[in-house]
Specification:
two-stranded antiparallel ribbon, ten-stranded mixed sheet, alpha+beta, elongated, Rossmann fold, 31% strand
Length: 308
Amino acid sequence: MTQLDGVVKPKTKRSKRFLQNRESKLVENCKNAMIIKGGNTSELVTQALKDIYALKKPNAVLYKKKNIMRPFEDATSLEFFSKKSDCSLFLFGSHNKKRPNNLIFGRMFDFHVLDMFELGIEKFTSLKDIKNNKCAEGIKPMLVFAGDLFNTDMEYTRLRSVLTDFFRGPAVSAVRLAGLEHVLHFTAQDGKIYLRSYRVNLKKSGCRTPRVELEEIGPAYDFVLRRTHLASDDLYKTAHRQPKGLKAKKKKNISHDAFGTKYGRLHMQKQNLDKLQTRKMKGLRKRKREVAAKSGEVTTPKKARTQE
């Protein structure tokens, strides 16, 4: 690829496809996440990063080497890795005396940090510690958020948005019942966030609707919220702006009720029913007396013949 005046021009078909895949689209590609180890990490943080990578695969990139960076002080390195790997989500793990067992969830907008949240691990149960059947790789999980803080507190509301972007997986138009196999449950209570992972088992119930049982498969995290970096309201609004091509065009004279029934309104010109052409039938013909009465000519009835 060659670069002239800031514009990258591909030389081969492979590089052309590579650049086309990174171009802006009406419907963007599935969001990829980069999982990065800090300059100093503990065994707990390393295993926690691997387990989240196992949940996020195949839409994730795991950097195994250590990278010395401090996202809250200087995000230049994160933005460089984001542009290099074409990832709009990131997870950074670190460990030090002041902030032990630290994870930073964040997302990018136009290859710049939009918002990020620093969560400390207080308790962790790995995938290996729970001996149950696991879900297959790449299954789209169901996300459940419990707790009033996710709806009332501004920071927790943004955190819910980041976690939704991170774990939601690809957008699909339909999912069959057997495909609803994995559940990620987030609970916010007393300043802590609890993450649990369950496998859905569908049992026979004697009717058409199966009986649902949840089996914990791991990993399990107990987080505490430490530091946050929130985008300004203007930047956050710009990041959520949709292109005009995705906005549904409003159809006139069409409405829906509360049950989803579609109603349409037709506008027609006033019709003259007297000139309406109907099918000519003998039964519809007017009689001579009705025609004469309408024109004003009154005929006297003939006298009955008397018998002498």
